[in-house]
Specification:
The structure is a homodimer. By secondary structure, chain A is of the alpha/beta class. Helix content of chain A is about 45%, strand content about 10%. Chain A is built from 9 helices and 7 strands. A 5-stranded mixed sheet of chain A has the order 4-3-5-6-7. Chain A has a two-stranded antiparallel sheet with strand order 1-2. The complex binds zinc ion (2 copies). One zinc ion binds next to α4 of chain B.
Chain lengths: ~200, ~200
């Protein structure tokens, strides 16, 4: 017996979600059809809305539905003079959830990876460079992941900072090498922030 | 910082899926936005389509996009004179995947549960009764789950079969008590079928 076309399509489509294999996808599809069609339809609408309405903040590149995100629009954040560079919006979120950092962000949406054709402009470093050039930023905190690519990216940005006479520091304490920043608990992240070391100072 | 409204709605909506908690929902939402917007939109459309297009077969009550499902429309299946009663479409699917059973099905979409207000007509037993009355069915295989409710439901249907002089058998071997039918491997399921015992014979 073949499943009906819409059901086959749904089970296949559910697998775009990380961690959802064929068996989980089938169970989810049947669960929604049997017990929660309203929830299934709401999820459908929420997905379509989110995929079209959510773009990127013109200033920091994180996800935003307006031209600029809430953080970039905050005068208090703008006055901080501190810019934290992260690889992804989930990293930004993890740092925000500590409730301690009050500066601005710059979200690379990736890291330098020449082998994959990802150079400085693919991760917005041209935008970051013009920010450094404009002035108003006194310190850049490099919070890229402690992986080879993350370190390479941090090193590249540190050189940019040196060129524009902006202090750059690298978060250090407590991040397990090869680990993922957005999986850390808040305490470890705060230690990483307070234990940052200067990598370029003017 | 608050997440943007469409993103908050999406993360909440993703949780209608069994096994997806707040942390998984957030990771899925960010994954789709960062790396697979096309997949996210396709999933949205597949959900909306499936929740509206998929109804129930008028004859066996399983999921179908046409008035009758593929199995009920098969003359070979109709000629078998065997009807297997299961609780859910996933149970039907598990039995079909063994490739050995060639009869018809009747899908209860639940089981008797007086405490929850689920009586015979809520699980389609009026439709099943008229099938037995019409004739053409020589044996009913009771493949409800081996739980208290599943056994009670099987017992109730066995009595219906007795009334209409139709043999009824209960699948038996190999099903762990309290287990879920659709989680069993095909071999165990086949043993359960071949080891079925008569519970009502005329
Ligand atoms: Zn922003
Ligand atoms: Zn059918």
């Amino acid at each position: 017996m073949q499943l009906s076309p819409s059901l086959t399509t749904l089970i296949e489509a559910l697998r775009c979600q990380p961690g959802i294999g064929p068996k989980s996808a089938q169970r989810i599809a049947f669960h929604l059809l049997e017990r929660d069609r309203k929830g299934g339809t709401q999820l459908g609408n929420a997905l379509i809305k989110a995929m079209t309405a959510i773009g990127h903040c013109q200033s920091c590149r994180t996800f935003a539905e307006q031209p600029q995100c809430e953080i970039c629009l905050s005068p208090k954040r703008q006055d901080s003079g501190i810019l934290c560079v992260v690889e992804s919006p989930t990293d930004l979120l993890a740092i925000e959830q500590t409730g301690q950092y009050k500066g601005l962000y710059f979200v690379l949406m990736g890291h330098l990876s020449p082998i994959d054709g990802i150079g400085p402009s693919e991760i917005g470093l041209d935008i970051l460079e013009s920010k450094l050039q404009q002035g108003g930023i006194n310190e850049v905190i490099l919070a890229t992941n402690p992986t080879v690519e993350g370190e390479t990216t941090a090193h590249y940005i540190a050189q940019l900072c040196y060129r524009y006479k902006v202090d750059a520091s690298r978060i250090a304490h407590g991040i397990p090498v090869g680990g993922e920043l957005d999986l850390l608990d808040g305490m470890t992240l705060m230690h990483a922030f307070s234990g940052r070391r200067v990598v370029s100072q003017n």
